[in-house]
Amino acid sequence: MLKILRYFLILLYMAITFLIGIMICIVRPNNTNNLYLCAKILAFKPFSILGIDFEKRNVEQLANLGPAVYMSNHQNNLDMLPGAACIQPRTVLLGKTEVKWIPIFGQFFWLSGNIFIDRHHPEKAKLSMQKVTKKILEKGISVWLMPEGTRSRGRGLLPFKKGGFITAVEAQVPIVPIVYCSYTNKIDFAKWKSGKIIGKALSPIPTKGLTLSDVPALMDTTYNAMKTTLDSLDQEMV
């Protein structure tokens, strides 16, 4: 019964939040902080509703960092909530084209200036990533993406796709890894205290002076840093 009530309340809360987000985007079109404002609303109550103890670490070090490419691990749809709690001002998201068809959320995602990528068509995906680079350079914004490209669903940290790394190098902005402990199948919404999630921001990885030939090494460095942190957080949660 508790689980069903939580599902109902969280869906209602999210629907209201995204409707508010749509109105904010209509009133303040093209404002680069629309997503950030709505994310703060989204992250305000859901952890309490779901009985999750969420702890974020080192996120305060990201204040005034400037344009960057944020990369987080991708486990399931719940990632939206810790992501909303950690997102920084003047940041947009990179999402799959399928997202635009989700009622209310899809319209909000589009209106808040996020960027769609068609992973089924490599040429279109490449153009989308070029658009990301252009936005970073021209508007001085940051972009948040999930380099695994798909939900891991408890399989650990999956191999990375290189698009986000190419963007970071071409824009000459740092990569900021943000790692969430493994929580798939470890949170029980039927319990009053359903579980805990820890999110940790790592030190920015610079790309100044790097070229496209450095992308493979940059991917390895980022992957290893995130994997080491994930293992450490998971061990802490045992």
Describe this protein's structure.
There is one protein chain. The protein has a single domain, classed as Glycerol-3-phosphate (1)-acyltransferase, CATH 3.40.1130. Helices cover 44% and strands 15% of the residues. It has eight helices and seven strands; from the N terminus they run H-H-H-E-E-H-E-H-E-H-E-H-E-E-H. It has helices at 2-27, 34-42, 46-50, 80-86, 105-111, 122-139, 163-171, 215-237; strands at residues 52-57, 69-72, 91-96, 115-117, 142-145, 175-180, 195-201. The chain has a seven-stranded mixed sheet, with helices on both faces. Helix 1 runs antiparallel to helix 2 (34-42), helix 2 (34-42) crosses helix 4 and helix 6 packs parallel to helix 7. The radius of gyration is 17 Å and the shape is globular. The model has no long low-confidence stretch (mean pLDDT 91).
Chain oligomer state = single chain
Tally of helical segments: 8
Strand content: 15-25%
The largest beta-sheet arranges its strands as: 1-7-6-2-5-3-4
* Secondary-structure class: alpha/beta
Question: Which architecture name does CATH use?
Answer: 3-Layer(aba) Sandwich
End-to-end Cα distance: 28 Å
Low-confidence stretches: none
Number of strands: 7
